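Ticket opened by: R.M.
Priority: normal
Category: complex prediction / small molecule

The reporter submitted a protein together with manganese (II) ion and asked that the result be attached to this ticket for the collaborator who will pick it up next week. Submitted input follows.
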Amino acid sequence: MRKPEISSRLFVQNRKRLVELMKENSLAVFNSNDIMPTNADGTMPFRQNNDLFYLTGINQEETQLVICPDFPDKKFREVLFIRESSELLEKWEGHKLTRDEARQISGVETVLWTTDFPGRFHHMMAMGGVERVYLNTNEHYRSDVVVQTRDARFIEWCQAKYPLHRYDRVAPLMADLRIVKQKEELKLIQEAIDITEHGFRRVLGFVKPGVKEYEIEAEYLHEFVRRGSRGFAYTPIIASGANNVVLHYIENSLPCKDGDLILLDVAAEFANYNADLTRTIPVNGRYTKRQKQVYKAVLRVMREAMKMLGPSTNFFDYQKEVEKIMESELIGLKLITKDDVRRQSAGNPAFRKYFYHGTSHLLGLDVHDVGNMHGKMPVGSVWTVEPGIYIKEEGFGIRIEDNVLITRKGVDDLMKDIPVEADEIEELMNAGK
Ligand code: GLY
Ligand code: MN
Ligand code: MN
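Result attached by the on-call engineer:
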């Protein structure tokens, strides 16, 4: 089996936690994602809606979940709808879940076919005394969705059919739940991190002048997939030379040159959960004096940032503090001066020329995971810590990124075993030469 059996207990508990947040006489609906078309009869690989996955563990298209906690008959308080297979479908696409299998994966007792949805849904709305309907929208702070999702189509359908019900957003409830990782989820994230570590160590022994960025990509992918991952957690960024100042360089097409650095923002997924790792390594196995100087500055910022994280940290205050530390490192590197800082305007601080992204984001089922960023960082939330200094005029940039778990005492660096010291990286790259 490529994927581990995730205990249905996780999904049962997740639904229970959601029900506790729902108001009286309400019902919530979750839809799977569509299979996205490409051209002609082509499709993208299916990617499940993460809220639906979080509540059911079902990785199949055309799935719906309805939760109606106050329905009089216990059997209809949770109903899962899955696509009914056929002999023809099985011939083309292989096995689809049976109702029994879906029951075992999700722990939902009542599993019906998607074709039963309209009738059963109406029954639940009418007989469940439903006054309020929770529907799902993508409210991620960076989302930019230009296609109509299944959830969006459902909202149109539902509001047209039941115009006088009260409607509410389930997204804030899901964000509050998903920000705190359960033990089982942490194990899956750690597995994604451990697989990522294997890939990185393999690449340390592979890189030398002349290798192409895409050859490095292939090394990672082989290592990830052979270890049970479905592949990359996100489009890998393998940026050598001047391209490593471009935050989302994904061409990965150039040969790596002697004397240059390669920024490797590459990580594995495992069972729908993600790692997010960045290391910046020298193509020839040795950092130059200047590269090492900047590398050490970035690493100091990462370490100082980690010390600030804990259950009483507010994300926005933390970001400001990290920027102050970065500012003094940039002064130390003679990239900016104290005068630049004195003269800077609030909207355009001096450090921004060299550090032009946030330091941390949530991580989980989404690489940029959902969760309320305004409160304190809850125990059990997982964040990245990823400072970077990008010096276009010197032809290189450096980012270092680890993933940490917020604990009662502070943080646990989930990537502490992945080489990060410049000297260790050099040693590993030169071992056996
Ligand atoms: N790999 C994307 C990021 O670091 O946010
Ligand atoms: Mn990241
Ligand atoms: Mn990253």
